[in-house]
Amino acid sequence: MEPVDVAIVGGGHNGLVAAAYLARAGLSVTVFERLEHTGGAAVSERVFAGVDARLSRYSYLVSLLPDRIRHDLDLAVPLVRRRYSSYTPVGSTGLLIDTADEEATAASFARIGAAGDVRAFRHWQEDMAAVAAAVWPTLTEPLLSQDALRDRVGERLWHDVFARPIGETLRERFDSDVLRGVLATDALIGTFASLDDPTLVQNACLLYHVVGGGTGDWDVPVHGMGAVTDALAEAARSAGARIVTGADVLAIDPDGTVETADRAVRAGRVLVNAAPAELSRLLGESSGQAPEGAQIKVNMLLRRLPRLRDRTVTPEEAFAGTFHVHETLSELESAHAAAVAGRLPDPVPVELYCHTLSDRSILGPELAASDAQTLTAFALQVPHRLGVDRATAQAAVLASLDSVIAEPIEALLLPGEHGEPCIETRTTADLEAELRLPGGNIFHAPLAFPHRSASGAEGEWGVRTAHERILLCGAGSTRGGGVSGLGGFAAAQEVLTSR
Ligand SMILES: Cc1cc2nc3c(=O)[nH]c(=O)nc-3n(C[C@H](O)[C@H](O)[C@H](O)COP(=O)(O)OP(=O)(O)OC[C@H]3O[C@@H](n4cnc5c(N)ncnc54)[C@H](O)[C@@H]3O)c2cc1C
């Protein structure tokens, strides 16, 4: 059996980060990826046959990838900062949050009857900036204890973000249901929960959405998410890592043996980029409660952006940031209650992003010269347990969007090579089948606060498993969710510091 220092199971972006660090440190590294290409959920693909558009098919925006990883691995990954953070239609008007114009934002608050929340919103932004400043630098260090993290964050913000349900904090701080909802969505991306859930899983989700880069900004990767992965794969390969695609790992032994259908290696350490539930399966162990995703993803290519009911903003402004649909706090809670009762929420809460307003390089020359735009919808509060089929899911997302814009979105879809409309929908079941995300959970497992557990050991990186040779190196590690590289970075540090 071939010996290697490190075998990595999964060539998602995190597996590639780990491979690059470890190969650069002189270790022999083999990455096994079951698909024919690397990247996992961080890829760009020609989604519509015969159409020259490479969409970020799954993940889309970058916030959590630290400069440290970009510098260490010499990654050239340009990002575009977006001026408008969000737009929320409200009747025939709407709330446009413009990061470059406080006065315009205040006027927009007034238009939706939320003038009284302007001050509270500024305080919220200052507070989230303080949380980011406290938490962000710790993410590339060994895990702090809970007490040490609380000391850094301070009692007041700890209470509001880490210690009580975020729904309670938002209701106390804001009067507007719209604004509460706009802020609450950060707590529900890929996370099925009530905003009042006592487990605080929604608070952990919010935290990772507000700390990225120390600012909480979500940037558009130029050339799409695949460019991030390609740069990481190149960093790993050029450092000497061997990347084997089309290599489904079928079993892992705690002694370090990793088997595919046609080969086996014996590794000093096995780093698992696959989800923790997948690791349990490969070890032949039971995984306990199955994780669950709760979103529908719809990718579209449009002739042009849709017209809005609100004449105070242009579609280019409204779709430049996050476009919220039926995401007031009350609507998010009603949607959760419906889903808990076994029903598909109606209306389903949806948010949309338009990549091509920030970066047209993902379109071929002809499309780029036209008014064409990509549009990506991400629906919340649709848990895997509902078993919603693709057609029903797509119809629900489009109906929700149509209810707030001035013309049906389907009429704007460009045709593909055989005349079929350029739209694709991915349910949690699709993500499980295509990417092996258990229950379609985009973060592999429920998110956790970035500190040690009560039984955690000082100096650990949040990647250990019950087996000494086996570490997690993906989104399922303590700080791994999102396109951050943090899972791979942490696992590499754990290997290098314990040599
Ligand atoms: C629809 C969607 C939208 C998202 N949007 C964003 C976003 O905008 N921004 C953001 O930061 N995050 C987003 N995320 C989350 C983010 O994409 C993931 O958290 C991130 O990709 C996790 O990276 P990873 O490398 O840990 O795992 P993955 O990307 O899941 O990669 C794991 C890899 O392991 C492989 N694998 C699994 N089992 C085996 C096996 N037995 N043998 C060999 N290979 C195996 C898989 O094929 C896969 O390539 C989104 C996710 C989804 C699905």
**Runs with pLDDT <50, length 5+?**
none
Helix content: 25-40%
- Global structural class: alpha/beta
- How many discrete structural domains? 2
- Annotation field: number of helices: 17
Strand tally is 18
Percent in strands? 15-25%
**Radius of gyration from the alpha-carbon trace, in angstroms:** 22 Å
How far is it from the N-terminal to the C-terminal residue, by CA?
Answer: 23 Å
Give a quick account of the main beta sheet: strands, pairing sense, barrel closure: 7 strands, mixed
Shape: globular
Mean pLDDT: 97
* Distinct small molecules: flavin-adenine dinucleotide
Quaternary assembly: single chain
Q: How would you characterize this protein structure?
A:
The protein has 499 residues and is of the alpha/beta class. The protein contains 17 helices and 18 strands. It folds into two domains: 2-78 and 220-288 and 448-497, FAD/NAD(P)-binding domain, CATH 3.50.50; 79-218 and 292-435. Strands 1, 2, 9, 10, 11, 12 and 18 form a seven-stranded mixed beta sheet that branches. A seven-stranded mixed beta sheet has the order 7-6-14-15-16-13-17. Helix 7 (166-173) runs antiparallel to helix 8. It binds flavin-adenine dinucleotide (FAD).
